[in-house]
Prior knowledge:
The longest helix is centred in the C-terminal third of the chain and has 23 residues, at 300-322. The model has no long low-confidence stretch (mean pLDDT 94). The protein is of the alpha/beta class. The chain has helices at residues 16-29, 51-61, 76-87, 105-114, 130-140, 159-168, 190-203, 264-278, 285-295, 300-322, 359-369, 376-388, 414-433; strands spanning 35-36, 99-102, 121-126, 146-150, 156-157, 172-178, 206-210, 235-240, 253-258, 328-330, 338-343, 390-391, 393-394, 404-408.
Amino acid sequence: MRTALVSPGVGEMTYEIRNIVNVAEKLQKCGVKINWENIGDPIVKGEVIPAWMKEIVAGEVMENDTWGYCHTRGVLETREFICALTNSRGGARITPDDIIFFNGLGDAIAKIYGSLRPETRVLMPSPTYTTHTLGESGNAHAAPICYRLKAEDNWYPDLEDLRNHVKYNPQIGGVMLINPDNPTGMVYPREVLEQVVAIAREFNLFIIADEVYNNIVYNGEKTVPISDVIGDVPAIALKGISKELPWPGSRCGWIEVYNYAVDTDFQKYINAILTAKMNEVCSTTLPQKCIPAIMQHPEYPLYLEERTRSYERMSNITYNFLREVPGLIVNRTNGAFYMSVAFEEGLLNHGQSLPIDNPEVKELVENLVSAPGVSPDKRLVYYILATTGICIVPLSSFNTPLQGFRVTLLEKEEKECERIYGTLAAKIREYLDS
Length: 434
């Protein structure tokens, strides 16, 4: 073109969670049956939405007002409902004006980072969910700045590393966390959250807490929303219904703003986010109108408990198979529906492979792994996909130097889960011995 169309580095940004789908679809055409363990969509994995929930949605569809625009911030009655839930916990208090709805949390994330000055950075966990790092680094036109999650210690954050990054990087204006975490499935203990808030208070930072999985916790663990511990520190919590109901196709998420009035710069920042939202007029009306009726339905707590028990069972099956593989660092997942597994340093290399009988599949995989810049864990993922049909995501694609992979825990049948992860464990052993 006559002039450059994108900023330097933009073409290098990738979203491997879905890029791997392109490879899997090519392998499908070659006869490989795929198990989709790469993407967190409960519907794709067979989640059955209960009739009572569908009836609520069907009833709202029949109302004319669900077909129109709503307030820029979102449906007032729904914001009042959410506001009451948050305030009932006794932590940070908000008003309906502290809630802004978006067309999914992807929309919220884009506006949260896009409303910052490019010079102002948000410190990211490593590993972390790709949408956050792409949004933040894309706005800054620079590589993400990250604090370490410790694979050797349940994926808990390295608070010393976090503090040092803040102390020696004056451009950092905020800290982001995901709780429960994607991609690791780690659940933040209350005391760890309190320490993160203390660092933010000391250095006059704000916090972004992605809490879309906050009510999906199991194995006896508990977590708290950031509103319970935030005190007087400015913060934004991201919430939604895509994983909890689950209704990912609704594209319905929101932010809750805490301590809006304590800092004039933070006020201007939130106003900039709202102004960006005003350009779109409003967010999707139908799912917003459904939220209070669904969450207040007497069957809802039982339904959510049943789902979390299922994730707990799949978490433990997956953990028990993978922890037996020498060289893997495996932590039990206690929240969300993901598990991240790291290899001990140096265990993966560019010479390992698995035998592939189908010549067409073999040629495709060998072309992929011989491409420049393919990481050792991406190489592993391609061979696993080609030989077993199990579609997982390389851990290095989640903004970490660690080599490994992320899987989901959405399989509905225990026997099938055992088959998938028994097969995966055996193939990893074979791959490491090659």
